Amino acid sequence: MNRSIVYHVHGHNGFYRQARFSILSLVDLLQKEGRDDIRILVYADRPEEFSHYPFVQTILMSSEQVRAWSGPFRYVHRIKLEVLNHAIGAFGLPLLYVDGDTQWLRIPDVPLDVLGKRSDNGKAVAFYMHACEGAITPGAHGQYYRELATHAPLLRAHGLGDVTKWVMWNAGALGVPIGNEGLFEEALGLLDDLMKTARATTYIEQALMSTLITARFDVEGLTDYIYHYWNMSKEAQVVLERLFAPMGLAGDYVREIEAYGRFRWDSGELATIQEGFGHRAKLRIERLKRSVSKRWVRLLSRAKDAALRE
Hints:
Elements: E1 4-9, H1 13-32, E2 39-44, E3 56-60, H2 63-69, H3 78-91, E4 95-98, E5 102-104, H4 109-115, E6 127-129, E7 132-135, H5 142-150, H6 152-157, E8 167-169, E9 173-176, H7 183-195, H8 204-216, E10 219-221, E11 226-228, H9 233-244, H10 253-262, H11 267-275, H12 277-309
Parallel strand pairs: 1-2, 1-4, 2-3, 6-10
Antiparallel strand pairs: 4-9, 5-11, 6-9, 7-8
């Protein structure tokens, strides 16, 4: 049976250090158990930084590919869906995707086994995501409820019209069961339609995938298998930069494994970094830059659409 775990990483070095750390945590577990039955697929714009790890197969994402996969609105989270759509076509199902800002706690044998099975009625036994974040309602995740509700006819056409079933799951992990080869092609079409008018876009991909998945599958969480530090990602990058700095560029995974074995998260240090004035100022500047970039891309895209309609 296919037993593949998928990553994608591109851009600045902080994302690369996170992915290296996550992959090291999985390699460490596999080697301690003498395992070689899990393949790690890494889509990256600098794949050479991962090619030295055991169990890893890299797939190049050129800068042109990254740009194309981000779609007409240059939406970074869209790339994940394109990666999964490509991986399914190239490597088959089941697949288990995880974000780079993760650490493996256990080898996901049970989830991978479940993803490869069908129930007695022929449907998938379960889909996996990271963790449930509660119902999507006007009061909870309200801005995304409104974005989805704006497109109610579109969602109903895909069987997603029952608002009582809208539940937000953290999409830092996506375990895709067999028999769902067209899922991400469908999701990409839906996302592109939502993005034409969406104002709240930061987690619109997560809201859409949560709605799509919970409407069609029983969903299981992966908190027993991964630590996903999404809410401390920027602070963790500071710590991981210090971890990897003595090793320079990737190339000696044995040395990295040894360094990983000595590493421990320090929640107090992460909190101190988070509260630091310089760190907070840097984050505000980054948010401003992203906001300006998003608005500019949206204006250009709408102007192009208007010109084509004339």
